[in-house]
Specification:
globular, 2% strand, 2 domains, mainly alpha
C-alpha cells in the first residue's frame, strides 16, 4: 500500500488516533489493578510466552532486526519511486512511519505498558517517615553489611545453574508478589542470550525485559552471586510490576526471605548497590563481600563506555518519565525507603494497607 494512497492515509490516521486514545485512556489505578494487572494481563502474558518462550533464541532480537530492515527498505523504495515528488513522498513516508510507531505503542500498552498505571506500591505499603532519616538508613546499612558478611562464605560455596536458582527463587518470589497485589501464580521465564550483550556491558545494563515478547535477557558478565537478584528483578517486570524501584523491592524480598544463602546474599548485594552514597556505616564488612563489591565495580569500570552509559541513562530516564515515573532513572534506589520505614511480618514480608492485597480495591487505612 503506497504511503499517499487514500486507504493508506486512512489506515495511518486510524493508527495514530488509536495511539492517542490509548494515551488518553485513564480508567484509574484501582481499575487497572483489578481488571488489567489481575485480569487481562496474566492471560496476555501466558499467551505471549507460550509463543516466545518455546523458542531457544531471543525473538525480540529477531523482530527488532526485521523492523529496522523493513523500515530502511520502505524509505529507500519510497524515494526511489518518488519521481520528483520528493516533498509529497517525504510527508507520506513520515506519516506512515509515525502510524507504525503508534501501532507499536498500542501493542506495547496492551501487552505490558498499562502496568505503569496500577496502584503504586507506595500507596500499598505503610511507611513510618521517622524511620527513613539519615541515621535510620545508616543503621540499615550496618545491617546490610552484617548480612553480607554472614552469608558470603556459604553463598560462594554453592554451584547453582540458572534452573537451580529459579527453582529456589519461585516460592519466595510468588509470596512477595502475592503480598503486594498479584493474584496469579508466576511461572518463571527462560533467561535468553541476546545479540545486544555488547550494549548491555557498555551501558551497565544488568537485565532487560522485552515488553512486546515478554522475554528476559541478563548481562552475561554478571557474577553468580548477582544473578538471583537480577533474575527476580526482571521477573517482577514480567509479572506486571513495571516500576523499577518496585522491581528492586520485590527482588530484594524474594531473595532475602529465602532459606538459601546464595539467594539471600544476592538480595543484600542488590540493596548495598542502591544505598545512598553518603550512608554512614559503623560496622565492618567481611573481606569476601568487600572483594565481591570491588570486583563488580572493576567489571563496570572495564566494560562500561561512559558515552554509551550516559546516552542510555538519558534515554531510559525520558522513557520512565513519559510513563509517569516522576523520578525517572533515579527511581531504582527509592525502595530503600520502604526497606527502612515499613513494617514486616515474621516471614519478612511488608505489612500492606487494608484492602491492598491481590488486586483488591483500596479501602483506606
Amino acid at each position: 500500500m503506497r504511503p499517499t494512497s487514500v486507504p493508506g492515509v486512512a489506515l495511518d490516521v486510524v493508527l495514530i488516533a488509536a495511539a492517542c486514545a490509548t494515551r488518553a485512556f485513564a480508567p484509574g489505578a484501582a481499575w487497572i489493578e483489578t481488571h488489567y494487572a489481575n485480569g487481562a494481563y496474566p492471560a496476555i502474558d501466558r499467551g505471549v510466552r507460550a509463543i516466545t518462550g518455546a523458542v531457544p533464541f531471543c525473538v525480540g532480537d529477531v523482530l527488532f532486526a526485521i523492523a529496522v530492515a523493513l523500515l530502511v527498505r520502505y524509505w529507500f523504495l519510497a524515494f526511489r519511486r518518488a519521481r520528483g515528488r520528493v516533498v509529497r513522498t517525504a510527508l507520506g513516508v513520515t506519516l506512515r512511519t509515525i502510524a507504525v510507531a503508534c501501532g507499536l505503542y498500542v501493542w506495547f500498552m496492551a501487552s505490558w505498558g498499562f502496568g505503569y498505571e496500577r496502584i503504586p506500591l507506595a500507596d500499598k505499603i505503610a511507611v513510618h517517615d521517622e524511620r527513613t532519616d539519615e541515621d535510620a538508613v545508616g543503621r540499615f546499612g550496618d545491617h546490610v553489611a552484617d548480612m553480607l558478611t554472614r552469608d558470603a562464605t556459604a553463598a560462594h560455596a554453592e554451584r547453582l545453574t540458572d534452573a537451580g536458582v529459579a527453582a529456589l527463587l519461585v516460592p519466595t518470589f510468588d509470596a512477595a508478589t502475592r503480598r503486594l497485589g498479584d493474584a496469579a501464580t508466576f511461572v518463571p521465564p527462560r533467561i535468553k542470550p541476546t545479540a545486544f550483550q555488547p550494549l548491555f556491558a557498555a551501558s551497565a545494563t544488568t537485565g532487560f525485559t522485552d515488553p512486546w515478547t515478554h522475554e528476559v535477557n541478563v548481562d552475561a558478565s554478571l557474577f553468580p552471586v548477582e544473578r538471583p537478584a537480577i533474575f527476580a528483578h526482571e521477573w517482577s517486570h514480567v509479572s506486571g510490576f513495571n516500576d523499577e524501584t518496585e522491581a528492586n523491592f520485590i527482588a530484594t524480598l524474594a531473595c532475602i526471605t529465602s532459606r538459601d544463602p546464595l539467594l539471600r546474599y544476592s538480595g543484600w548485594l542488590l540493596v548495598w548497590e542502591n544505598l545512598p552514597q553518603n550512608v554512614h556505616l559503623t560496622h565492618a564488612m567481611g573481606r569476601l563481600p568487600y572483594d565481591d563489591i570491588m570486583a563488580i565495580r572493576a567489571r563496570y569500570a572495564k566494560n562500561v563506555n561512559e558515552h554509551v552509559e550516559r546516552a542510555s541513562r538519558a534515554a531510559y530516564d525520558g522513557y520512565l518519565k513519559s510513563n509517569h515515573v516522576k523520578a525517572g532513572f533515579a527511581s531504582y534506589a527509592l525502595f530503600i525507603r520502604w526497606m527502612t520505614g515499613a513494617d514486616f511480618d515474621r516471614d519478612g514480608l511488608p505489612i500492606v494497607r487494608e484492602g491492598m492485597r491481590t488486586g483488591m480495591t483500596p479501602t483506606g487505612g
